[in-house]
């Protein structure tokens, strides 16, 4: 009898090990990849990640709606229904323990796979070579005077870009093409940049609009890259001056940039080097906003001096943007932003939400390396 029991037990243990295998692999990648940035860059990001990401992103672009949104909205009732079905089966069965164990194994296996997929589609990319080294930038820190000079230059470029876009009766920016055409053209904003930096590869050819965008604004988010689906969706309830940079930012995630600051910087470069005036303006406006906010923290007088040089059109767009977001401020936004902060810290970016400001140092390094102010 003892021998029979022993024989029965082993397969169960093996089944549990099989369920946990993806999670163990994910943990190994999480611990090892940060120690090998060159391997992560050339084998992981440009190899493994790309093999999965590019075809999947391309396929996801076939759907005209956000699959991510559908999964989130339909997922909660679907999971609740599954739980009810499972409980009913459990109550009716005689071999409850076996059914419960099988159910538990299924849940563990799903979560385990979920973790591994995350590491493959996003988590591993946190350990790639630094954005500064990829773009060949001088890795230096700069003083407030240089920050002020760059912010002043960005203000002028933002003004010039603003003069090239259309506006509505209230004098705020409107898109030059339809919403659908703009979202389908978003990946084109990378064309010129890709000639200079051929490692910028993505399968996206349609950025999705979130149907519940207005409700989503309560979280404070403007876009999302879903790593499990490799899909890019943006909030289209926001002022259109945000759309170009947001879309380019989310596309940067599909190119293997996991860090928010890196995506903000890459999106700025893609937008301002593109042939689409709507994207050029959105990119400059975003870069100006990051640098102006950083300048404000250093020197409020310098900030005011630069702010006064903005054209009326740019000011109207900024006013539209701040009054749009004001209506959503409150509890939900605070909690979702602090969750995001915790998530970023867990992936080894110590400064948390302040890492968004690291986009500023990349912009300054880009200005310095390319002698833009010279």
Q: How would you describe what is shown here?
A:
The protein has helices spanning 2-32, 37-60, 67-92, 96-121, 131-134, 144-162, 179-185, 191-196, 213-216, 243-254, 260-272, 277-298, 300-307, 312-326, 331-346, 358-369, and strands at 166-167, 173-174, 208-209, 223-226, 231-234. By secondary structure, the protein is mainly alpha-helical. The strands form 2 sheets. A 3-stranded mixed beta sheet has the order 3-5-4. Helix 6 runs parallel beside helix 13. The radius of gyration is 24 Å and the shape is globular.
Number of continuous helical runs: 16
Q: Quote the average pLDDT.
A: 90
Shape: globular
Helix-strand topology string: HHHHHHEEHHEHEEHHHHHHH
The count of DSSP E runs of length 2 or more, i.e. the number of strands, is 5
Helix content: 55-70%
Write the SSE topology.
Blueprint: H1 2-32, H2 37-60, H3 67-92, H4 96-121, H5 131-134, H6 144-162, E1 166-167, E2 173-174, H7 179-185, H8 191-196, E3 208-209, H9 213-216, E4 223-226, E5 231-234, H10 243-254, H11 260-272, H12 277-298, H13 300-307, H14 312-326, H15 331-346, H16 358-369
Parallel strand pairs: 3-5
Antiparallel strand pairs: 1-2, 4-5
Helix pairs in contact: 1-4, 3-4, 6-12, 6-13, 10-11, 11-12, 11-16, 12-13
């Amino acid at each position: 009898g003892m021998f029979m029991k022993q024989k029965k037990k082993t397969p169960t243990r093996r089944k549990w090990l099989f369920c946990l295998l993806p999670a163990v692999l994910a943990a190994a990648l999480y611990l090892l990849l940060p120690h090998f940035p060159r391997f992560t860059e050339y084998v992981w990001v440009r190899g493994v990640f790309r093999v999965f990401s590019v075809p999947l992103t391309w396929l996801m672009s076939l759907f005209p709606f956000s699959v991510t949104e559908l999964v989130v909205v339909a997922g909660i009732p679907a999971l609740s229904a599954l739980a009810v079905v499972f409980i009913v089966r459990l109550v009716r069965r005689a071999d409850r323990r076996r059914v419960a164990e099988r159910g538990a194994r299924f849940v563990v296996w799903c979560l385990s796979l979920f973790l591994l997929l995350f590491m493959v589609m996003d988590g591993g990319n946190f350990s790639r070579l630094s954005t500064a080294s990829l773009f060949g930038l001088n890795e230096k820190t700069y003083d407030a005077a240089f920050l002020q000079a760059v912010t002043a230059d960005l203000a002028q470029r933002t003004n010039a870009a603003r003069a090239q876009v259309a506006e509505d009766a209230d004098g705020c920016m409107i898109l030059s093409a339809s919403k659908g055409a703009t979202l389908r053209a978003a990946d084109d904003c990378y064309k010129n940049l890709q000639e200079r930096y051929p490692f910028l590869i993505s399968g996206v050819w349609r950025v999705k609009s979130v149907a519940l965008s207005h409700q989503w604004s309560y979280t404070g988010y403007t876009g999302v890259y879903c790593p499990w689906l490799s899909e890019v969706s943006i909030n289209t309830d926001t002022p259109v001056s945000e759309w170009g940079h947001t879309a380019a930012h989310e596309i940067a995630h599909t190119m293997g940039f996991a860090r928010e600051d890196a995506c903000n910087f890459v999106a700025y470069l893609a937008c301002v080097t593109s042939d689409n005036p709507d994207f050029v303006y959105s990119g400059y406006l975003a870069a100006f906003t990051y640098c102006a906010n950083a300048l404000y923290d250093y020197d409020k007088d310098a900030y005011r001096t630069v702010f006064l040089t903005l054209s009326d059109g740019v000011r109207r767009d900024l006013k539209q943007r701040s009054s749009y977001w004001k209506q959503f401020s409150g509890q939900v936004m605070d909690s979702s932003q602090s969750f995001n902060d915790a998530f970023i810290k867990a992936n080894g970016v110590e400064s948390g939400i302040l890492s968004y400001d690291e986009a500023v140092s990349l912009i300054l390094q880009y200005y310095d390396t390319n002698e833009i102010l010279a």
